[in-house]
Specification:
The structure is a homooctamer of 208-residue chains. The first copy, chain A, has 208 residues and is of the alpha/beta class. The first copy, chain A, is built from eight helices and nine strands. The structure holds adenosine monophosphate (4 copies) and magnesium ion (MG) (8 copies). One adenosine monophosphate binds next to strand 1 and helix 8 of chain A.
Chain lengths: 208, 208, 208, 208, 208, 208, 208, 208
Amino acid sequence: VRTGVSEVIYGAGKSAAQIAGIVDAMRRAGQERILITRMDERKAAELAEMGCSFAYHAEAHAGVVGELPEPDGNGEILVLTAGTSDIAVAEEAVLTARFLGNSVTCVNDAGVAGIHRLLRHGEEIARAQVIIAIAGMEGALPSVVGGLAACPVIAVPTSVGYGANLGGLTALLAMVNSCASGVSVVNIDNGFGAAYQASLINHLSGKR
Amino acid sequence: VRTGVSEVIYGAGKSAAQIAGIVDAMRRAGQERILITRMDERKAAELAEMGCSFAYHAEAHAGVVGELPEPDGNGEILVLTAGTSDIAVAEEAVLTARFLGNSVTCVNDAGVAGIHRLLRHGEEIARAQVIIAIAGMEGALPSVVGGLAACPVIAVPTSVGYGANLGGLTALLAMVNSCASGVSVVNIDNGFGAAYQASLINHLSGKR
Amino acid sequence: VRTGVSEVIYGAGKSAAQIAGIVDAMRRAGQERILITRMDERKAAELAEMGCSFAYHAEAHAGVVGELPEPDGNGEILVLTAGTSDIAVAEEAVLTARFLGNSVTCVNDAGVAGIHRLLRHGEEIARAQVIIAIAGMEGALPSVVGGLAACPVIAVPTSVGYGANLGGLTALLAMVNSCASGVSVVNIDNGFGAAYQASLINHLSGKR
Amino acid sequence: VRTGVSEVIYGAGKSAAQIAGIVDAMRRAGQERILITRMDERKAAELAEMGCSFAYHAEAHAGVVGELPEPDGNGEILVLTAGTSDIAVAEEAVLTARFLGNSVTCVNDAGVAGIHRLLRHGEEIARAQVIIAIAGMEGALPSVVGGLAACPVIAVPTSVGYGANLGGLTALLAMVNSCASGVSVVNIDNGFGAAYQASLINHLSGKR
Amino acid sequence: VRTGVSEVIYGAGKSAAQIAGIVDAMRRAGQERILITRMDERKAAELAEMGCSFAYHAEAHAGVVGELPEPDGNGEILVLTAGTSDIAVAEEAVLTARFLGNSVTCVNDAGVAGIHRLLRHGEEIARAQVIIAIAGMEGALPSVVGGLAACPVIAVPTSVGYGANLGGLTALLAMVNSCASGVSVVNIDNGFGAAYQASLINHLSGKR
Amino acid sequence: VRTGVSEVIYGAGKSAAQIAGIVDAMRRAGQERILITRMDERKAAELAEMGCSFAYHAEAHAGVVGELPEPDGNGEILVLTAGTSDIAVAEEAVLTARFLGNSVTCVNDAGVAGIHRLLRHGEEIARAQVIIAIAGMEGALPSVVGGLAACPVIAVPTSVGYGANLGGLTALLAMVNSCASGVSVVNIDNGFGAAYQASLINHLSGKR
Amino acid sequence: VRTGVSEVIYGAGKSAAQIAGIVDAMRRAGQERILITRMDERKAAELAEMGCSFAYHAEAHAGVVGELPEPDGNGEILVLTAGTSDIAVAEEAVLTARFLGNSVTCVNDAGVAGIHRLLRHGEEIARAQVIIAIAGMEGALPSVVGGLAACPVIAVPTSVGYGANLGGLTALLAMVNSCASGVSVVNIDNGFGAAYQASLINHLSGKR
Amino acid sequence: VRTGVSEVIYGAGKSAAQIAGIVDAMRRAGQERILITRMDERKAAELAEMGCSFAYHAEAHAGVVGELPEPDGNGEILVLTAGTSDIAVAEEAVLTARFLGNSVTCVNDAGVAGIHRLLRHGEEIARAQVIIAIAGMEGALPSVVGGLAACPVIAVPTSVGYGANLGGLTALLAMVNSCASGVSVVNIDNGFGAAYQASLINHLSGKR
Ligand SMILES: Nc1ncnc2c1ncn2[C@@H]1O[C@H](COP(=O)(O)O)[C@@H](O)[C@H]1O
Ligand SMILES: Nc1ncnc2c1ncn2[C@@H]1O[C@H](COP(=O)(O)O)[C@@H](O)[C@H]1O
Ligand SMILES: Nc1ncnc2c1ncn2[C@@H]1O[C@H](COP(=O)(O)O)[C@@H](O)[C@H]1O
Ligand SMILES: Nc1ncnc2c1ncn2[C@@H]1O[C@H](COP(=O)(O)O)[C@@H](O)[C@H]1O
Ligand SMILES: [Mg+2]
Ligand SMILES: [Mg+2]
Ligand SMILES: [Mg+2]
Ligand SMILES: [Mg+2]
Ligand SMILES: [Mg+2]
Ligand SMILES: [Mg+2]
Ligand SMILES: [Mg+2]
Ligand SMILES: [Mg+2]
């Protein structure tokens, strides 16, 4: 059974040495593929110097031990972002989804203030098995996407913005109030969590 | 000079008798046209029984003493609402704008979860001198409209919704964070305030 | 295509007469099956007196015009509630899910303070295609369920509780912070929204 | 058509190299005049070293590629600030307005606790086509100005203050509640957004 | 020693019978003058029917047993309100101050959006020993008054307003952030508390 | 007339050079005594190096140009603090009060969790003309002091504490809700503001 | 084993009929003693009319089926309240504690603004095995009591107050920040929960 | 009498020199055993260099002067943590409890998302005299533990998490709303406070 969680290390608040120790233990326990999230460049460099072998994905702030798997999900996960500043969260989602065996398409800068840029992607939206919609500031993207899509939409509020964005809380509250049906929400900046649930959905067996 | 404010009575928290008194005083001072906002059906009936002569606009929860003026603004004000539940606020805005001498177009139920319904109104959006965009829940409408319109957009958050809508605060915070440029915001359910500012804008002299 | 949304009337803030009008229009447009949510007993009685024919589901505060369909989803939706006070939200979720063509199992009173009552339902949890976990107060249920289940969990915070429950906001914030992976969240008391997304997930095609 | 938005780069969270890249692309696309907001002195120096040619406006934390245009608006924009600490926000507003083709007058330190300093500027207030009122702490300035002015007032709350100013949220909430009519509000510290809307208003065609 | 507090009954949440009992006990203990605050008309009528003898002040929602005393303070207390809706709070302040032996002047409707109405009262402001400034909505009055007055200003936020007034919290936060020196703040709608402190100040001995 | 405000520079957010400039201008305008608040040790050193002559009070984070005046108030100001961590705020209050011509007594570490330490100071409390009560965390001190004192109490919430102290907001809200009469409140950490109002009270003329 | 919870019915939100059903089931299961909390007078009357036999405690808003037990705890529980308005919460705590087999002393109106009234109860404080300190408004009582007592203090914030008491949240936050050691906190108005934990503490075995 | 508080120094916001001074004074007053909390490694090193002799406990961020005492409590305190990131708070609790004479068992990483890891510790839970349950994020652990345990549970919310964890406030609110009986709560990250109260409970005399 693919459970995913046991393959992931949450890197924030852990030293490179601690991460190295966990990776070692996991590998000894037979884990071939490990995802390390929330690890900045400096910590990644330290970890590499300790002899830990992994690929660092700078935009996702994450490292991968072992090879990414062949996608084996039912369909495709579409990751949509509202603005270029949301890309770090999007990359965390994309990498996590790939790590968990999903085929992923990513469309950046599809913010609602330029609705025609979003409408150009109708085909990707129609094709997706599940959509991850990422937005900071007023968090309006999932509402528009939820109206266009027939599949489930997982909304990720981001801390992008300033002032009354309240560090992402404004976007989170907005998304939870989405007037579109079929939208559910995860924590602020939680690209990992959105991808994890999207992967679960994308790996469900069909008609039983 | 048209200042508007001296012609308006805010009816909430005033008794019918108090309103009647103010109307009387205003008329004696020469005011021919008076707008009474936030007055429910029952209070309007009481006021009528006291011999005060006015037209009651039930959906706007407002009364008008005297005739509505001929529009004398520069162009047209467009009032857009996200959902049918926002209509009371929209009607307050529409009536206020008419009362202040504006030509108004109103499009209801143009919520962002059905974006094509909104896109059908491209012509009205292009024609407007100023737009009032009204929405509850996640308050996403002004962001989409702001991206489509070349004119100023005044956003009105409404208390429509439940739970994490926080009585309209979620929509207000979202609108203040709008990723679209050219959007400013008034208080929750404040259709009057939005129309008042829209009217000021619509009556500005052109090139001086 | 089953879109669901066009078959649903949100009854809150609409009069019986308004609902009757919408039902009529929908039926004339060929809609045979209609769900009316957030309609209390008194409004349902008024609607019935107007000659509208529907079945009223008192615990769900909802009415159904026409017959509920045969389930045609991939698997089963499991609805779990933490306490008896959450049942109204659970019943809204159950009825909505059934209305949208899903087979539903409902387990009430599986709160985390009596963890063994929850653990007794391991089989239902393992069998579910998607789980709706409903809880007020501290909103802990989805975290425990998320750890037990291999399928996606949709969490519904409820307004059940008092004082520092902040009308359900505490449960919502807690659920968004769930330490379990595979959990996403909808608005406070939004049994409809959870069931709608669960139904989308349960009707996804398998491997394409 | 002057849309403005496509001429502006939001510099916060972008590296000098990224900004240089965007400037290059814009220039190649024919854009002669570019505004770069939220760029601190250090980043501006880096950008200059990369051979990008622009004028840096230190107080506005902004850079301008190309020449500022001749004003072509209908009238004058008046920028009023409550205290010297709000000047950074005011300068962002002034520069943005000039960049967008407006004639601007700026009056600093017209806080309400010294009301006579404000009253001295009655002439500027009467002459303005639109006013931008900027204030931190209790955010009272727009209310007083709104009462004095016959034109629209755009209020900008600032994060100036400490303790219960809540990073500007207190001023924002206060401004949204303004007892003066004709006041609308933008995000905390958003001098750019206020100027953008003011410019839209100042460039509206007159009677059509 | 005049302590005041032992002469006052806070009527909210007490039945007429409970109030009657406390009045009786106080009178038997020799108290000749008693103030009963937060008592609505209905409760006052019940209390009167029980044979309790007192004068009811409807606008202040308060009753006075015994005679109001001759003023014996050092100077005059000035009570200023921003709008007519704040009058109930103002009347509570005025009656409390009179009850505690102060000479009081009250100026209503001196809101900051009509600054010239406030400026007309320069003489009263200059004459006052202490000022109570009462305002709802954005709570700006104390800041303007604080700048005009040389004496201490006690600010009372009121719950007047709607939406983002947050039941008076917005005004309270604004007042605490006042840019004027010499302003301190009491609880929302707490006319009693402001008058109590004003009376303490007005009864301080001079140079010792 | 002593107005105080024009003698004070708020040092936060101003560079040493800016402060030096303001001091120079003030002195040229005849001001002999100047208080500079919120100036840390480093900025004070820079200011001194620029040739500005002043005494630095490290604990108060403030500098004084010229001599402190002889006290000329009516009585004594008592400054009470709950814990040693509140001393910086207390020292700002003490120095400001002295600067404004008041005789000040300061009692530190009189927190309510050791009530007998506070009760030992009954004499100082009885003697005071006005009391400044400073406390962080739960902000209980002003309530106890307000019950013991017959004079006005000005409460200063501080940002001392962690977690649910919300940066001082908890103490501020608690103080505004004080069950003691005669207590009013200033902004978080605003020792200056409390002392300024206390000085106004302490300099009021007696019976007129 | 005494577990308590299975003997208690939370009456809020349950109909008299539902309560009667639960009582019946419990009695059939052998439960002789049942506590029904949060039941108002009207519901109690309905329940009695249904033939359910119980004693109603009006001040505690609670009913008891069967006899209260003989106290069998280690020592005494002391319940302290700050003001008479907190008595309903205190009575819920007292009755719950008695129901669970504790000897209880209750002291009302020991608020911190009259500290000497509290200090008079030094003996009861010294004698108590555990103290429940109940307060609304600023919630200061537990801090003072925590300093006086050597035993554990359980703090109960109440919703008593208005304005910035935020429905009890202010008191809750204050209590959680108590500067006294040995204080822990339960939910707003949760007299039951405090008594339940106090009873657990009072029934702990001594040295094992 | 063991009072504990006089033996403890809260190191945050104190310099090494200040701490050294307090330690000296305490020792001269006869205190042999002193706990210094919230002291980071650097400050500890400085303190050691000043000649102060103490053992530093790095994980607890605390130092102990003198020897830890032999446990003399009634039973055992069990410290449970939800995740490895909560260990710093747990270690503060463990060390404080030991310092105050308690025997302590500590179980880390017993989070509710892996409920079986928690259930493995049934014996420790049954044996405990009092339990300290520590959790960040959604703060669900105390509810599950409260249901399993027959003894009092003291809940400690931690600031672990991000986004909508609101720095620990989400966990605090959740814990205060716990559906389990027998749970009370201390401040965010307050391992010391929880251990202090647990120690009080664990040292209570039995039947008197
Ligand atoms: N970026 C992330 N945000 C939220 N949760 C994460 C993230 N990355 C990993 N996790 C979760 O954290 C768990 C590992 O936590 P830990 O044992 O502290 O390394 C994983 O199994 C995931 O459930
Ligand atoms: N209980 C509910 N909570 C949230 N949304 C609902 C609920 N019931 C229906 N809806 C949504 O409201 C739409 C109908 O809204 P309306 O057109 O106002 O009746 C449906 O299509 C659903 O998307
Ligand atoms: N200071 C500012 N505050 C808010 N929005 C801004 C600011 N400066 C620029 N913008 C907006 O950001 C857009 C550019 O964003 P970007 O594509 O991320 O550079 C501009 O077109 C403006 O709409
Ligand atoms: N520590 C302080 N906190 C709040 N206000 C202060 C403080 N120090 C000075 N002020 C006020 O700030 C004014 C000077 O502000 P500025 O002109 O910016 O230097 C003074 O007149 C005081 O009213
Ligand atoms: Mg959809
Ligand atoms: Mg636009
Ligand atoms: Mg799972
Ligand atoms: Mg105006
Ligand atoms: Mg003044
Ligand atoms: Mg007093
Ligand atoms: Mg104690
Ligand atoms: Mg238990």
